Amino acid sequence: MKLNKSQIQDQNTKSLNSIEEHFNFTANILDKKGIDVNAVIKKLQNLKVAIPSWALGAGGTRFGRFSFFGEPTNLEQKIEDIGVLNALTHTAGAVSLHIPWDIPEDYNGIKALANSLNITFDAVNSNTFQDQKNAKHSYKFGSLSNNSKDIRQQAIQHNIDVINIGEKLGSKSLTVWLADGSSFPGQNNFQTALINTENSLKEIYSNLPKNWTMLIEYKPFEPNFYSTVIQDWGTSFMLANACGDKAYSLVDLGHHLPNCNIEQIVSTLMYKGKLGGFHFNDSKYGDDDLTVGSIKPYTLFLIFNELVYGMKNNTQNPDLAWMIDASHNLKDPLEDLLQSLEAIQEAYAKALLINQTELKNAQLNNDIVKCQEILQDAYRTDVRSLVAKARINLDRAINPIETYRALKVRNELIKERGKNSIATGL
Ligand code: LRH
Ligand code: MN
């Protein structure tokens, strides 16, 4: 299914006047505060968030999976679905593949399709947390950290194969997330597991093409429930430093213990020039992989405040990889992703309204009340018309969800793919 500009513009006509009115009102207020609204819109238009290839079907848990009909059954259909998201938002111009769930059969065909939909290939993800059919060794007791050299070698080779697949597609980074760990005290020798992991990552790193980066994703628990080898940002940071300049930490918002100050982790990694990117999602308890901004939107705003500060002051930190990593157990996966993209754009827009100089002065004067007033004035600003304006100027949808529904996209997908199509992934 492909959406074209005129279909979207037709739907936009319904709310064009009210959004223009809302925009002029908001832009006028911001202009009086000395905020360059056009600069904010430009930054919103330049934000490109990679869509996870493993989250275009209905996700599930060990307790069950409820299909969503019309799911994509191959990479071509997944790229088409991302094309629909990008036609509506302009923010979804990249895909992050998970190997082997999404190994392309026809590289030229898939590149041509992606190119025709203005979609680029962001980080490729390796998978040594599941055993592949006719694999020689099992990762049951770990992969890059495994006590067995042969099993570590198999996992290292898989990561090298993933790099080769990514190279053929034009990707420039490898994401490594390890389920490796233990579920019972005494099961692992922590130091041996960490040393094995460090040496394995160094071997993968030595196979990175010149202009590639390696993103090391950390997670405190699940699927292991006593220890995880790369459990927190400190371990990821240490391993990235041990590997070299092209290795960075990847922050998955759901990979933090309750009440962890994620925005402080973001600022520390940016200060050290080791923040490689994000897996955006939201959570209430564990790695819930819920819609971005659906549970803790203020935390997302505070994270973007650190990102805006860091992108200005930490030139030692590379351009970030912006990616969503969510699992859609209840909502239409495409609507869920549209809501996540909206939440990311809104948090970024609100953070761009913060007068960082004024905030810095208030901080230096220990004027805590003033600091909070500055932050919350930005957070309480309704930026929806700015985000919509950024899309209108690019012939995208004023209201992506409404347009998606008005154009009956899901019905069309069910007509094309039937009710029993199942997508690979989580
Ligand atoms: C692990 C994780 C990782 C992916 C997987 C799909 O929880 O966040 O990024 O490999 O989800
Ligand atoms: Mn993730």
TrEMBL record:
<dbReference type="InterPro" id="IPR050337">
    <property type="entry name" value="L-rhamnose_isomerase"/>
</dbReference>
<keyword id="KW-0479">Metal-binding</keyword>
<dbReference type="GO" id="GO:0046872">
    <property type="term" value="F:metal ion binding"/>
</dbReference>
<dbReference type="InterPro" id="IPR036237">
    <property type="entry name" value="Xyl_isomerase-like_sf"/>
</dbReference>
<keyword id="KW-0413">Isomerase</keyword>
<keyword id="KW-0464">Manganese</keyword>
<dbReference type="GO" id="GO:0016853">
    <property type="term" value="F:isomerase activity"/>
</dbReference>
<protein>
    <submittedName>
        <fullName>Sugar isomerase</fullName>
    </submittedName>
</protein>
